[in-house]
Design a protein that fits this description.
Blueprint lengths: L15 H4 L2 H6 L27 H8 L15 H14 L3 E5 L2 H12 L5 E5 L4 H10 L6 E5 L5 H7 L4 E7 L11 H10 L3 E5 L16 E5 L13 E5 L2 H14 L5 H12 L1 H20 L4 E5 L9 H7 L6 E6 L5 H10 L4 E2 L9 E4 L17 E5 L5 H13 L5
Parallel strand pairs: 2-3, 2-4, 4-5, 5-6, 10-11
Antiparallel strand pairs: 1-7, 6-7, 8-9, 9-12, 11-12
Helix pairs in contact: 4-10, 5-9
The structure holds pyridoxal-5'-phosphate.
Length: about 400
Protein backbone atom coordinates (compact mmCIF):
# COMPACT_ATOMS: atom_id res chain seq x y z
CA UNK A 1 0.00 0.00 0.00
CA UNK A 2 1.30 3.41 -0.92
CA UNK A 3 1.12 6.08 1.74
CA UNK A 4 -0.11 9.52 0.75
CA UNK A 5 2.79 11.92 0.42
CA UNK A 6 2.54 15.03 2.56
CA UNK A 7 1.46 18.05 0.57
CA UNK A 8 0.90 20.63 3.31
CA UNK A 9 4.08 22.60 2.61
CA UNK A 10 3.81 22.57 -1.18
CA UNK A 11 2.70 26.23 -1.00
CA UNK A 12 6.38 27.09 -0.53
CA UNK A 13 8.18 26.42 -3.80
CA UNK A 14 11.35 24.57 -2.89
CA UNK A 15 14.30 26.01 -4.81
CA UNK A 16 12.71 29.43 -5.35
CA UNK A 17 14.37 30.94 -2.27
CA UNK A 18 17.80 30.23 -3.76
CA UNK A 19 16.91 32.03 -6.95
CA UNK A 20 16.70 35.28 -4.96
CA UNK A 21 20.41 34.93 -4.15
CA UNK A 22 21.50 34.32 -7.72
CA UNK A 23 22.25 37.93 -8.69
CA UNK A 24 24.06 38.73 -5.46
CA UNK A 25 26.22 35.58 -5.65
CA UNK A 26 27.07 36.03 -9.34
CA UNK A 27 28.45 39.51 -8.70
CA UNK A 28 29.88 39.21 -5.17
CA UNK A 29 33.66 39.12 -4.79
CA UNK A 30 34.45 40.00 -8.41
CA UNK A 31 37.28 42.32 -9.41
CA UNK A 32 36.42 45.96 -9.91
CA UNK A 33 37.54 46.80 -13.47
CA UNK A 34 40.67 48.95 -13.56
CA UNK A 35 41.25 51.47 -16.34
CA UNK A 36 43.58 48.98 -18.10
CA UNK A 37 41.16 46.10 -17.69
CA UNK A 38 41.40 43.14 -15.34
CA UNK A 39 40.27 39.53 -15.04
CA UNK A 40 36.75 38.96 -13.74
CA UNK A 41 38.06 36.86 -10.84
CA UNK A 42 40.48 38.17 -8.21
CA UNK A 43 44.08 36.90 -8.28
CA UNK A 44 45.34 34.35 -5.74
CA UNK A 45 48.05 35.94 -3.64
CA UNK A 46 50.09 33.54 -1.51
CA UNK A 47 52.32 34.87 1.24
CA UNK A 48 53.59 35.00 4.78
CA UNK A 49 55.68 38.17 5.12
CA UNK A 50 54.14 41.48 4.16
CA UNK A 51 56.75 44.10 3.36
CA UNK A 52 56.47 47.84 3.93
CA UNK A 53 58.55 50.79 2.72
CA UNK A 54 59.10 52.15 6.24
CA UNK A 55 58.74 51.04 9.89
CA UNK A 56 56.07 53.70 10.31
CA UNK A 57 54.02 52.19 7.44
CA UNK A 58 54.33 48.73 9.01
CA UNK A 59 53.21 50.03 12.41
CA UNK A 60 50.27 51.83 10.84
CA UNK A 61 49.17 48.63 9.10
CA UNK A 62 49.45 46.64 12.36
CA UNK A 63 46.68 48.83 13.73
CA UNK A 64 44.41 47.48 10.95
CA UNK A 65 44.30 43.92 12.36
CA UNK A 66 40.54 44.16 12.95
CA UNK A 67 39.75 45.69 9.53
CA UNK A 68 40.14 42.77 7.04
CA UNK A 69 43.41 44.35 5.90
CA UNK A 70 46.69 42.66 5.01
CA UNK A 71 49.02 42.62 8.05
CA UNK A 72 50.69 39.20 8.09
CA UNK A 73 49.88 35.88 6.33
CA UNK A 74 48.66 34.13 9.50
CA UNK A 75 46.24 37.00 10.07
CA UNK A 76 44.61 36.64 6.66
CA UNK A 77 45.30 37.24 2.97
CA UNK A 78 43.50 39.32 0.32
CA UNK A 79 41.32 36.49 -1.05
CA UNK A 80 40.33 35.47 2.49
CA UNK A 81 39.31 39.04 3.22
CA UNK A 82 37.20 39.18 0.05
CA UNK A 83 35.52 35.89 0.98
CA UNK A 84 34.86 37.30 4.46
CA UNK A 85 32.99 40.26 2.96
CA UNK A 86 30.86 37.96 0.78
CA UNK A 87 29.97 35.56 3.62
CA UNK A 88 29.13 38.44 5.98
CA UNK A 89 26.68 39.80 3.37
CA UNK A 90 25.19 36.35 2.68
CA UNK A 91 24.63 35.68 6.39
CA UNK A 92 23.37 39.23 7.00
CA UNK A 93 26.09 39.99 9.56
CA UNK A 94 28.72 42.72 9.96
CA UNK A 95 31.98 40.77 10.08
CA UNK A 96 33.18 37.27 9.16
CA UNK A 97 36.31 35.41 10.21
CA UNK A 98 37.35 32.61 7.82
CA UNK A 99 39.15 29.67 9.44
CA UNK A 100 40.73 26.48 8.13
CA UNK A 101 37.72 24.12 8.45
CA UNK A 102 34.06 23.97 9.42
CA UNK A 103 35.02 22.19 12.61
CA UNK A 104 37.55 24.94 13.39
CA UNK A 105 34.70 27.44 12.89
CA UNK A 106 32.81 25.62 15.67
CA UNK A 107 35.83 25.33 17.99
CA UNK A 108 37.23 28.85 17.45
CA UNK A 109 33.75 30.31 18.05
CA UNK A 110 33.38 28.36 21.30
CA UNK A 111 36.88 29.35 22.45
CA UNK A 112 36.18 33.00 21.64
CA UNK A 113 33.04 33.21 23.76
CA UNK A 114 33.75 30.81 26.68
CA UNK A 115 36.14 30.88 29.62
CA UNK A 116 36.96 28.52 32.49
CA UNK A 117 34.04 28.19 34.90
CA UNK A 118 31.40 28.84 32.22
CA UNK A 119 28.51 26.54 31.38
CA UNK A 120 27.78 25.56 27.76
CA UNK A 121 24.47 24.20 26.47
CA UNK A 122 24.74 21.98 23.39
CA UNK A 123 21.74 20.51 21.56
CA UNK A 124 21.71 16.73 21.72
CA UNK A 125 21.58 16.73 17.91
CA UNK A 126 24.86 18.67 17.54
CA UNK A 127 27.49 17.67 14.93
CA UNK A 128 29.51 14.84 16.53
CA UNK A 129 32.95 16.50 16.43
CA UNK A 130 31.51 19.62 18.14
CA UNK A 131 30.20 17.37 20.93
CA UNK A 132 33.62 15.67 21.14
CA UNK A 133 35.41 19.04 21.40
CA UNK A 134 33.20 20.15 24.30
CA UNK A 135 33.40 16.86 26.20
CA UNK A 136 37.10 16.13 25.67
CA UNK A 137 38.75 19.52 25.21
CA UNK A 138 36.68 22.30 26.79
CA UNK A 139 36.22 20.13 29.91
CA UNK A 140 40.02 20.28 30.48
CA UNK A 141 39.73 24.07 30.70
CA UNK A 142 36.91 24.01 33.21
CA UNK A 143 33.96 24.56 30.85
CA UNK A 144 30.94 22.49 31.88
CA UNK A 145 28.68 21.16 29.10
CA UNK A 146 25.04 20.00 29.28
CA UNK A 147 23.02 18.52 26.41
CA UNK A 148 19.48 19.79 25.95
CA UNK A 149 16.82 18.13 23.77
CA UNK A 150 16.87 20.12 20.49
CA UNK A 151 13.12 20.76 20.64
CA UNK A 152 12.91 21.64 24.34
CA UNK A 153 10.23 24.24 25.11
CA UNK A 154 10.78 27.26 27.32
CA UNK A 155 10.08 25.50 30.66
CA UNK A 156 12.23 22.51 29.71
CA UNK A 157 15.08 24.77 28.60
CA UNK A 158 14.91 26.77 31.81
CA UNK A 159 15.67 23.58 33.73
CA UNK A 160 18.95 23.25 31.80
CA UNK A 161 20.08 26.84 32.37
CA UNK A 162 22.59 27.60 35.14
CA UNK A 163 23.69 30.91 36.65
CA UNK A 164 27.01 30.55 34.77
CA UNK A 165 25.50 29.58 31.37
CA UNK A 166 27.50 31.71 28.91
CA UNK A 167 26.69 30.07 25.56
CA UNK A 168 23.66 28.32 24.14
CA UNK A 169 24.72 26.51 21.00
CA UNK A 170 22.19 25.50 18.33
CA UNK A 171 22.32 23.53 15.11
CA UNK A 172 19.15 23.60 13.04
CA UNK A 173 18.30 21.13 11.63
CA UNK A 174 20.40 18.79 13.76
CA UNK A 175 23.09 16.50 12.38
CA UNK A 176 21.64 13.16 11.18
CA UNK A 177 18.30 13.50 13.03
CA UNK A 178 17.20 16.83 11.44
CA UNK A 179 15.24 18.37 14.32
CA UNK A 180 14.48 22.00 13.42
CA UNK A 181 14.99 24.27 16.43
CA UNK A 182 13.03 27.26 17.74
CA UNK A 183 15.85 29.79 17.29
CA UNK A 184 13.95 32.92 18.48
CA UNK A 185 13.09 31.10 21.73
CA UNK A 186 16.72 30.06 22.24
CA UNK A 187 17.81 33.67 21.59
CA UNK A 188 15.37 34.99 24.21
CA UNK A 189 16.55 32.40 26.73
CA UNK A 190 20.22 33.19 26.12
CA UNK A 191 19.82 36.97 26.17
CA UNK A 192 17.65 36.78 29.29
CA UNK A 193 20.70 35.63 31.29
CA UNK A 194 23.35 37.64 29.41
CA UNK A 195 24.53 34.59 27.41
CA UNK A 196 25.15 34.35 23.65
CA UNK A 197 23.40 32.19 21.08
CA UNK A 198 25.81 30.46 18.66
CA UNK A 199 24.31 28.68 15.64
CA UNK A 200 25.88 26.15 13.30
CA UNK A 201 23.97 27.38 10.21
CA UNK A 202 25.65 25.09 7.66
CA UNK A 203 22.41 23.41 6.46
CA UNK A 204 20.59 26.74 6.45
CA UNK A 205 23.09 28.78 4.39
CA UNK A 206 21.13 31.33 2.37
CA UNK A 207 17.82 29.81 3.59
CA UNK A 208 17.97 31.01 7.20
CA UNK A 209 18.97 34.56 8.12
CA UNK A 210 20.52 34.06 11.55
CA UNK A 211 20.73 37.66 12.77
CA UNK A 212 17.10 38.54 12.09
CA UNK A 213 16.15 35.64 14.41
CA UNK A 214 18.35 36.70 17.34
CA UNK A 215 21.49 34.65 16.72
CA UNK A 216 24.73 36.31 17.95
CA UNK A 217 27.29 34.13 16.16
CA UNK A 218 26.66 32.14 12.97
CA UNK A 219 28.95 29.29 11.92
CA UNK A 220 29.38 27.87 8.42
CA UNK A 221 31.25 24.85 7.11
CA UNK A 222 32.19 26.48 3.76
CA UNK A 223 33.35 22.98 2.80
CA UNK A 224 29.72 22.16 1.99
CA UNK A 225 27.62 24.13 -0.55
CA UNK A 226 29.77 27.29 -0.81
CA UNK A 227 32.85 25.38 -2.04
CA UNK A 228 30.44 22.87 -3.52
CA UNK A 229 32.79 20.53 -5.39
CA UNK A 230 34.10 18.17 -2.69
CA UNK A 231 37.61 19.62 -3.03
CA UNK A 232 37.93 22.20 -0.21
CA UNK A 233 37.91 22.24 3.61
CA UNK A 234 37.10 25.71 5.04
CA UNK A 235 34.91 27.41 7.65
CA UNK A 236 33.51 30.81 8.60
CA UNK A 237 32.25 32.56 11.72
CA UNK A 238 30.01 35.64 11.34
CA UNK A 239 28.91 38.16 13.95
CA UNK A 240 26.77 41.27 14.06
CA UNK A 241 27.80 43.32 17.11
CA UNK A 242 31.12 45.26 17.34
CA UNK A 243 31.95 43.75 20.76
CA UNK A 244 31.41 40.23 19.38
CA UNK A 245 33.72 41.02 16.45
CA UNK A 246 36.44 42.23 18.84
CA UNK A 247 36.20 39.00 20.87
CA UNK A 248 36.07 36.76 17.78
CA UNK A 249 38.87 38.51 15.90
CA UNK A 250 41.10 38.55 18.98
CA UNK A 251 40.57 34.78 19.45
CA UNK A 252 41.33 34.09 15.77
CA UNK A 253 44.58 36.12 15.95
CA UNK A 254 45.61 34.47 19.22
CA UNK A 255 44.81 30.97 17.92
CA UNK A 256 46.44 31.56 14.52
CA UNK A 257 43.18 30.74 12.72
CA UNK A 258 43.04 31.70 9.02
CA UNK A 259 42.10 30.32 5.58
CA UNK A 260 44.64 29.32 2.92
CA UNK A 261 44.46 31.54 -0.22
CA UNK A 262 43.80 28.63 -2.62
CA UNK A 263 40.93 27.30 -0.48
CA UNK A 264 39.43 30.78 -0.18
CA UNK A 265 39.73 31.32 -3.93
CA UNK A 266 38.03 27.99 -4.75
CA UNK A 267 35.25 28.86 -2.30
CA UNK A 268 34.73 32.29 -3.90
CA UNK A 269 34.49 30.49 -7.25
CA UNK A 270 32.05 27.93 -5.83
CA UNK A 271 29.81 30.70 -4.50
CA UNK A 272 29.26 32.03 -8.04
CA UNK A 273 27.15 28.96 -8.90
CA UNK A 274 25.76 28.18 -5.45
CA UNK A 275 22.28 29.56 -6.11
CA UNK A 276 21.71 27.43 -9.22
CA UNK A 277 23.30 24.35 -7.69
CA UNK A 278 21.27 24.66 -4.52
CA UNK A 279 18.00 25.42 -6.29
CA UNK A 280 18.43 22.24 -8.33
CA UNK A 281 19.66 20.11 -5.42
CA UNK A 282 16.91 21.38 -3.10
CA UNK A 283 14.18 20.60 -5.67
CA UNK A 284 15.57 17.13 -6.39
CA UNK A 285 16.00 16.36 -2.68
CA UNK A 286 12.43 17.41 -1.89
CA UNK A 287 11.03 15.34 -4.76
CA UNK A 288 13.07 12.31 -3.72
CA UNK A 289 12.08 12.79 -0.06
CA UNK A 290 8.37 12.92 -0.95
CA UNK A 291 8.67 9.82 -3.11
CA UNK A 292 10.61 7.92 -0.42
CA UNK A 293 7.97 8.86 2.17
CA UNK A 294 5.33 7.17 0.01
CA UNK A 295 7.22 3.87 -0.10
CA UNK A 296 6.23 0.93 2.15
CA UNK A 297 9.92 0.16 2.92
CA UNK A 298 10.26 3.62 4.55
CA UNK A 299 9.00 4.41 8.07
CA UNK A 300 9.73 8.14 7.91
CA UNK A 301 11.72 10.79 6.10
CA UNK A 302 13.40 13.55 8.09
CA UNK A 303 13.34 16.46 5.67
CA UNK A 304 12.55 19.85 7.31
CA UNK A 305 10.08 20.78 4.53
CA UNK A 306 7.96 17.66 5.18
CA UNK A 307 5.30 18.02 7.91
CA UNK A 308 6.44 14.73 9.47
CA UNK A 309 9.91 16.17 10.26
CA UNK A 310 10.39 17.09 13.93
CA UNK A 311 10.22 20.90 14.15
CA UNK A 312 8.72 21.32 10.65
CA UNK A 313 6.61 24.25 11.94
CA UNK A 314 9.80 26.18 12.81
CA UNK A 315 11.20 25.51 9.34
CA UNK A 316 7.98 26.82 7.83
CA UNK A 317 8.03 29.92 10.04
CA UNK A 318 11.74 30.81 9.78
CA UNK A 319 13.35 29.36 6.62
CA UNK A 320 13.13 30.69 3.05
CA UNK A 321 14.09 27.39 1.45
CA UNK A 322 15.38 23.88 2.10
CA UNK A 323 18.71 22.21 1.50
CA UNK A 324 19.62 18.98 -0.29
CA UNK A 325 20.44 16.83 2.75
CA UNK A 326 17.91 14.72 4.67
CA UNK A 327 17.45 11.51 6.66
CA UNK A 328 15.52 8.30 5.96
CA UNK A 329 14.38 5.73 8.51
CA UNK A 330 13.43 2.31 7.16
CA UNK A 331 10.36 0.29 8.17
CA UNK A 332 10.47 -1.97 11.24
CA UNK A 333 11.81 -5.38 10.34
CA UNK A 334 14.43 -4.13 7.88
CA UNK A 335 17.77 -4.93 9.46
CA UNK A 336 20.87 -2.76 9.51
CA UNK A 337 22.62 -5.44 7.40
CA UNK A 338 19.87 -5.37 4.74
CA UNK A 339 20.05 -1.55 4.64
CA UNK A 340 23.84 -1.62 4.24
CA UNK A 341 23.55 -4.17 1.41
CA UNK A 342 21.05 -1.83 -0.29
CA UNK A 343 23.32 1.23 0.15
CA UNK A 344 26.31 -0.77 -1.15
CA UNK A 345 24.28 -1.70 -4.24
CA UNK A 346 23.30 1.86 -5.24
CA UNK A 347 24.94 2.94 -8.48
CA UNK A 348 24.71 6.74 -8.32
CA UNK A 349 25.13 7.35 -4.58
CA UNK A 350 28.69 7.07 -3.28
CA UNK A 351 29.19 6.14 0.36
CA UNK A 352 30.92 8.93 2.22
CA UNK A 353 30.91 11.63 4.89
CA UNK A 354 30.52 15.35 4.25
CA UNK A 355 27.96 16.84 1.84
CA UNK A 356 27.17 19.93 -0.20
CA UNK A 357 29.18 18.84 -3.24
CA UNK A 358 27.82 18.21 -6.75
CA UNK A 359 27.66 14.45 -6.18
CA UNK A 360 25.06 12.27 -4.49
CA UNK A 361 26.06 10.48 -1.28
CA UNK A 362 24.59 8.14 1.30
CA UNK A 363 25.79 7.50 4.85
CA UNK A 364 24.37 5.07 7.46
CA UNK A 365 23.06 6.97 10.50
CA UNK A 366 22.51 4.22 13.01
CA UNK A 367 25.59 2.84 14.65
CA UNK A 368 27.80 5.86 15.18
CA UNK A 369 25.14 8.17 16.65
CA UNK A 370 25.60 9.59 20.19
CA UNK A 371 22.57 10.96 22.02
CA UNK A 372 22.05 11.70 25.73
CA UNK A 373 18.27 11.73 25.35
CA UNK A 374 16.23 8.88 23.88
CA UNK A 375 14.05 11.32 21.92
CA UNK A 376 15.02 11.55 18.29
CA UNK A 377 16.99 8.33 18.16
CA UNK A 378 15.94 6.49 14.97
CA UNK A 379 14.16 3.29 15.97
CA UNK A 380 14.90 1.44 12.73
CA UNK A 381 17.80 1.22 10.31
CA UNK A 382 18.49 4.76 9.10
CA UNK A 383 20.69 6.62 6.63
CA UNK A 384 21.35 10.10 5.32
CA UNK A 385 21.08 11.25 1.69
CA UNK A 386 22.94 14.14 0.09
CA UNK A 387 21.35 14.82 -3.28
CA UNK A 388 23.72 15.90 -6.02
CA UNK A 389 23.25 17.40 -9.47
CA UNK A 390 22.30 14.18 -11.25
CA UNK A 391 18.84 13.98 -12.89
CA UNK A 392 16.30 13.26 -10.15
CA UNK A 393 14.62 10.55 -12.29
CA UNK A 394 17.92 8.64 -12.34
CA UNK A 395 18.38 9.02 -8.59
CA UNK A 396 14.83 7.80 -7.94
CA UNK A 397 15.29 4.82 -10.28
CA UNK A 398 18.46 3.88 -8.41
CA UNK A 399 16.52 3.85 -5.11
CA UNK A 400 13.55 2.07 -6.68
CA UNK A 401 15.91 -0.79 -7.58
CA UNK A 402 17.51 -0.74 -4.13
CA UNK A 403 14.25 -0.64 -2.14
CA UNK A 404 12.72 -3.42 -4.28
CA UNK A 405 15.49 -5.69 -3.02
CA UNK A 406 14.55 -5.12 0.66
CA UNK A 407 12.25 -7.66 2.31
CA UNK A 408 9.48 -5.93 4.32
CA UNK A 409 7.73 -8.10 6.90
C1 LIG B 1 30.59 19.26 7.88
C2 LIG B 1 30.09 20.00 9.05
C3 LIG B 1 30.96 20.67 9.91
C4 LIG B 1 32.46 20.57 9.76
O1 LIG B 1 32.95 21.05 8.56
P1 LIG B 1 34.39 20.58 8.03
O2 LIG B 1 34.78 21.63 7.08
O3 LIG B 1 34.19 19.22 7.41
O4 LIG B 1 35.30 20.52 9.22
C5 LIG B 1 30.42 21.38 10.95
N1 LIG B 1 29.10 21.45 11.15
C6 LIG B 1 28.23 20.82 10.34
C7 LIG B 1 26.77 20.93 10.60
C8 LIG B 1 28.69 20.07 9.27
O5 LIG B 1 27.82 19.41 8.48
Amino acid sequence: MEKTPSSESSERIIGAGWQKLATFLTHAGRQKPERDGSFVNPPIERGSTVVFPTVADMEAQGAQAYEHELVYGAMGNPVQHELERVIAALEGGQHTQVVNSGLAACTVALLAFLKGGDHLLLPDSVYGPTRRFAVNFLARFGVETSFYPPRANEAELRAYMKPHTAVIFAESPGSHTFEVQDIPLLARMAHGVGARLLLDNTWGIGAFQPFTHGVDVSIQALTKYPAGHADVILGAITVQKPEDWRALRRAAIELGACGAPDECWLTLRGLKTMAVRLAQQARSAYALAQWLESRPEVACVRHPALPSCPGHAFWKRDFQDASGLFGVELAAGITQEAMIAMLDGLKLFSIGASWGGYESLVLPTSGGLTRHHEEGFPSGAAFRIQVGLEAVEDLQADFARGLAGLAVK
